[in-house]
Amino acid sequence: MHRINCPWCGERDEAEFQYQGDATKVRPKEDASEAKYFDYVYVRENPKGWHTEWWHHVGGCRQWVKVVRNTLTHEIHACGGPQDKLPVPRAAKGRR
Amino acid sequence: MKYSALSVLWQGLTGHKGWTRAWRDPEPKKEYDAIIIGGGGHGLATAYYLAKEHGITNVAVLEKGWIGGGNVGRNTTIVRSNYMLGPNTHFYEKSMQLWEGLEQDFNFNAMVSQRGVINLFHSDPQRDAFARRGNAMRMAGIDAELLDPAQLKQMVPILDFDNARFPIQGGLMQRRGGTVRHDAVAWGYARGADSRGVDIIQNCEVTNIRVEGDKVVGVDTNRGFIKGKKVGMAVAGHTSKIAQMAGINDLPVESHVLQAFVSEGVKPLIDTVVTFGAGHFYISQSDKGGLVYGGDLDGYNSYAQRGNLPMMEHVMAGGMAIMPAIGRVRMLRHWGGIMDMSFDGSPFICKTPIKNLYLNGGWCYGGFKATPASGWCFAHTIAQDRPHELNEAFTIERFKEGRMIDEKGVGPRPWIQ
Q1: Paired residues of B210 in beta bridges
Q2: Which of B292, B300, B337, B360 lies deepest, with the highest CB count within 10 Å?
C-alpha cells in the first residue's frame, strides 16, 4: 500500500488517489511543432527506478499532488504541490 | 522424441527411463543469423516459426531468467478473438486459428480448451455495443453469439442475475474462445524450436545492444558479446529498457503491474470464462479446480511484479457482486506481472529506425492470447524484413500518423487502457 503525503491533507492511503501519469512532461506552447506535441502526449521514459508522477487526490482535497516514487520498490521519496521541484535521488535505487 | 499416447504407455511399462530432456542447454555461439531477446511465449514462438516457416534455424533465444518465468507464466490463460477494430480482429483471429491446431503442430499437450468466453452486459446501451462488436466479428468470419438471460442462466447458474446495481441482461459469447495451459505453451514452443536447431540460452541477460552506423550488429550479455545478423526484441514489460539500449528513446509505452488470483481447488463451478467488465472482474476455473480470476491494472507505473491491496480488494468486491458464492472460497495465491502498456492499447510488431532490429511489444494485458500469431507475424517480419499484412498496422509510427488502434476509445492514458 502506498501512503502518499498530500501537502494539504497529510499522509493518506493510495486508495484516495487517482494516478495521473508522468509529471516530468510539460505541455508545449500552443504554436509548438507537432513533434513537440507528439513527445508530450505519447513519449515516456518509463524508468525502472525513481519516477516523478501525478496523483490526483480525488477522494480528498481534489488537488494534484506531485510524487517521487520508485517503480521497482514502490518506495515514496517525496511529495509536494504541482509547482514544487522535488528532489530525485541520484543513485537511481533499484535501477538495473 | 515424439510424444504420443503410445509413448506414454511404453514409458509406463518400462519405468519411465526413456524420456529425454525437452530442450538442450547450449553455450551461446559467437554468431547467429537471428537473436531473439526474451524467452517468453512470444520470443519462443518467434524462434519456432522462424525455423518452421522460414527455414532460419541458426537462431538464439536469450532469456535473462528461465523459460516460462515471465508473463507467459503470469497470466490467466484466456484465449479469444473478440476484437472489433480491423487490424486487431484479423490478427487475433489468426492467433485463435493457430491455437486450434497448436498441439498437433508442436506435438505438446497445451490443454487447449475451447470452453467459450462470455462478456456480460447490464444495460441497453451496453447490449447495443456488444451486439455491434459481435456483428463486426461475424463480418470478419469469427463466431459470436448474443445470449439472453435464460440461456446464460443455463450455462452459468452461479451468477447473481438480479444484482441491484448490475442486473444481467445477457452476454456476448465466443464459443471458440477458452483457456490454454500457459506453461505448456512456453515448453511446447521451446521444445519445438530446440528440435529444429534453435539455441535457447537461459540465465543470459542482455546488457547492451550494439549498433554500428544505422545497423544492429549484436548484443552484449552477461555471457559475453553475441553477434547477430538480425535482432528481435520480445521483452514486453521491459520494452522501454531494452529499446533504450539501442538508443530508441521515444516509445509510447509505460510499464504497469497487473495482478491475478487463484483460489483453493473446488468442485466444478464454472465451465466457461465469464467477464464482468462493468465490475472489473473476470473468472474461469482451472482443470485442477482452482478459480482463476483477475481485474484491472493497479494503475501506476511499476516494474515490481507485485501489486497492492486496494486493487485486490477491488477485484474481490467485483467477484462478490456478480458471483456471491465465491465468498466462501479461500484465495490460495496471487501474483503480479509487468505489462507493456501502449498508448492505444494495441501492440507493436514492426521494424525500428535501426536496420535489422525489430520490435515486438506493447501487449498491454492481452499478450497471452496473441502468443502464436505474435510469433508467427514477428518471424515473418524478421525473415522478410517487412511486416505481414496481419501486423502492418502495429507500427510505432501510427501515433505520429494518427492511426491509433484504440479498441477501448480511452485515449493516451495507458493506466486505464
Answers
A1: B218
A2: B360
